[in-house]
Amino acid sequence: MPAPSEVSLRINGELHVLRLEPRVSLLDALRERLQLTGTKKGCNQGACGACTVLADGERILSCLALAVQYEGAEITTIEGLADPLQDAFVEHDGFQCGYCTPGQICSAVGMMREFRDGSPSAVTGDGEMSFSEEEIKERMSGNLCRCGAYVGICAAIQEVFAR
Amino acid sequence: MKDFGYSRAGTVAEAVQLFGAHRNSKILGGGTNLVDLMRESIEHPDLLIDVTRLGSEGIKELPDGGVSIDAAVKNSAVAAHPLIRERYPVLSQAILFGASGQIRNMATTGGNLMQRTRCYYFYDETSRCNKRTPGAGCDAIGGFNRIHAILGTSEQCIATHPSDMCVALVALDVEVHVVGPGGERTILFDDFHCLPGDSPHVETTLKPDELITSISLPGLPFAKHSKYRIVRDRASYAFALVSVAAALEVEDGVIRNVRLALGGVAHKPWRAFHAEEVLSGSEASEERFRLAAEAELASAQGYRDNSFKIELAKRTMVGVLSELAETAVAQ
Lengths: 163, 331
Fold this sequence. Notes:
The structure holds two protein chains of two kinds. By secondary structure, chain A is an alpha+beta fold. Chain A is 32% helix and 15% strand. Chain A has a five-stranded mixed beta sheet, with helices on both faces. Chain A starts with a strand and ends with a helix. In chain B, β6 and β7 (183-188) form a beta hairpin. Chain B has 13 helices and twelve strands. Among the domains of chain B are: 5-52, Uridine Diphospho-n-acetylenolpyruvylglucosamine Reductase, domain 2, CATH 3.30.43; 224-330, 2-Layer Sandwich (Enolase-like, domain 1). Chain B is α+β, with helices and mostly antiparallel strands. Chain B has helices spanning 12-21, 34-39, 75-80, 82-87, 89-97, 101-106, 109-114, 120-123, 165-171, 189-192, 273-279, 286-297, 308-330, and strands at 5-8, 25-28, 47-50, 59-61, 67-70, 175-180, 183-188, 211-217, 226-231, 242-251, 254-263, 270-271. In chain B, 53% of the residues are buried. Classes of the chains: A alpha+beta, B alpha+beta. The A-B interface holds A 1-2, 21-23, 25, 44-46, 49, 52, 58-61, 64-66, 68-69, 107, 110-111, 114, 117-122, 124, 137-143 and B 1-6, 8, 28, 30-32, 35-36, 38-39, 48, 50, 52, 76, 79-80, 85, 92-93, 96-97, 99-103, 105-106, 234-237.
């Protein structure tokens, strides 16, 4: 069977060289090999968004990403973020148990960048884009929160975007 | 997950060579479907060939006013591209209604075409499924089949193709460009995916050693007046119960051009040829739209839990066509 090979990953600005089998997901590499346990394993099948990280600034699901495929990419996890969203989530009660929160915040950071770049969503019409609650809900629909803190999550994102 | 090898192809030629040389290999795009299926032991390749860094990941304008999209271009990039938004809004919308922001940032154009047609019995190891094990039987027929197909089904399989993007692509007469050891060829989109028949495990007409290099959208000026509508159980991030992709050109109340396709109803993205035939050259009226929808669904067959899809598909077709016809008059 294929032996583990050296995989170089840039994570939160630091280069890590790991010996990994190709089947190791980016999520498992982060959590099990690098002890970066801020990124959470929820469903491990791309349905819940808890494992969301940024790859070259774009939000992706680290559970469906093979680590080896992300060689050369700049990966940012919740540990590498210092974003006003983190305070805003606290201020607006954007969580209860907190398990989905790192994924929510990484997703929101990527989502706000997509919006500022002019990328449309399914609810964007032909006119000028406005950062409405409807847009936030649609664009964040890949991040589930079983505690149901959506109202606070939306408020936190809206406040930070308006700053 | 079973262990496997990984090779990153640097060129199309290298990908073709690797793919031809390794019998049990698979092409890796964004991995959003394949990695999941490998984790579920449904797919078990010995080698993955990564084709996301071939140095050809662009969207280009074609001389006929069409657009070419390389296989490795991400779904999010296609949906946001000005050429797509302006000339084929139905495609941009269809992509944005599919999956989530994160998945669209990973999933590739070629990978979207190659995702498996599937249902929950396909995922469930304790159920019989002719896709997983040819000849085993199908527990969806006679089981809980609310999300299943109503058109083009067989006694072997009633799963639906999950893609939204592909519904727009089949409506737009897209061509799929593929390459293998025998050279390049082009497959018309409607011929790319298969109905289940007696071999539901075969889902495309791609040969085992061929891979997709790009797709091309033909120049269709009237496609700028097009729309995608999806009806589903949640407002976002859910597969279609029924979806409709449509492009319509009306002149003096008469339909000059129409393209129509349905999602969520069949094993493949369903081009509504019968409806198009009824509509072509006829008056753009709600009565006529209803006749066209009836014609398309004439052969539909409902199962225990999904008969509602037949009327839902008709109403959604009429709704989308009426909306397009109204805005055509307003322009």
